[in-house]
Amino acid sequence: MSGARARPWSYHVLVLVEGEESLSRLGAMEVWLRQWEIPYRVVSVPRNDGAIRVCFSEDKYARAFQIKFGALRVPADACAAAQAAESSRIDVCQLVEGK
Questions:
Q1: 55: Cβ contacts below 8 Å, ≥ 6 apart
Q2: Residue 26 located in a structural domain
Q3: In a domain, 5, yes or no
Q4: What is the CATH number of the domain that holds 38?
């Protein structure tokens, strides 16, 4: 293993937020993340109003989230990582309700 450290919030998953059940699904995600005390940041995806990007500080958190909720792992986007690093804490439901 190399000594290089990953940048904060550099592990990303894409979550689709379309459909009638999206708010309840997002609520379940929020509860799960808080229950396991997993640090994360949520940023919107400007090119796609039907999705959000959840950013994690460690690969193991992104992988666990993906397995639990079926989210899509996506390459770290420098813009999204910068938003996550600068943004105040927003939960997944707040972001979707604001769209």
A1: 9, 10, 11, 12, 40, 41, 42, 43, 76, 80, 81, 84
A2: yes
A3: no
A4: 3.30.70
Do the beta carbons of residue 52 and residue 77 sit within 8 Å?
no
pLDDT in tens, 29-63: 999 999 999 999 988 776 666 888 899 999 999 99
- Contact, 54 vs 92, CB < 8 A? yes
Domain count of the chain? Answer: 1
Query: Distance between the two ends of the chain, CA-based, in angstroms?
Result: 41
> Facing residues of 89 across strands?
none
**pTM score, whole prediction:** 0.75
